[in-house]
Design goal:
Blueprint (H helix, E strand, L loop, with lengths): L1 E2 L7 E2 L4 E6 L2 E12 L2 E12 L9 E6 L8 H14 L1
Antiparallel strand pairs: 1-6, 2-4, 3-4, 4-5, 5-6
C-alpha cells in the first residue's frame, strides 16, 4: 500500500464506487492504471473522504494497493493504512 501524492498520476480503468464506512470516513474504490518510469501496472485506488481533515487540512486520502479485493476489502485497506500511519 502506498498513499497517492501529487506527482503520482493514474488512469481510471473503471468508475469510483462506494464500498462503505470506515473509522475515519467513507471509502470508495476503483481500478486504475499507473505508469511509472515507462512501466505500467494496474491496482486498486481506495479513496477515503474523511470526517475530519488531516493535519495538512486535506479532506481526502487515496491509497494504492495491489492486494486483491478478495483478500482485503477497500475498508480493510483504508483501516490498515491509517492504523500504520498512526502507530509510526
Amino acid at each position: 500500500m502506498i498513499r497517492q501524492h501529487g506527482g503520482l498520476g493514474y488512469k481510471p480503468v473503471d468508475e469510483l464506487h462506494p464500498v462503505g464506512l470506515c473509522e475515519t470516513g467513507t471509502a470508495f474504490e476503483q481500478q486504475v492504471q499507473i505508469v511509472h518510469e515507462g512501466r505500467s501496472f494496474q491496482c486498486r485506488r481506495i479513496l477515503v473522504k474523511l470526517i475530519r481533515p488531516t493535519r495538512d487540512q486535506e479532506w481526502e486520502i487515496a491509497i494504492y494497493t495491489n492486494l486483491a479485493s478478495i483478500d482485503a476489502s477497500g475498508i480493510l485497506v483504508a483501516e490498515l493504512y491509517q492504523e500504520q500511519v498512526i502507530t509510526i
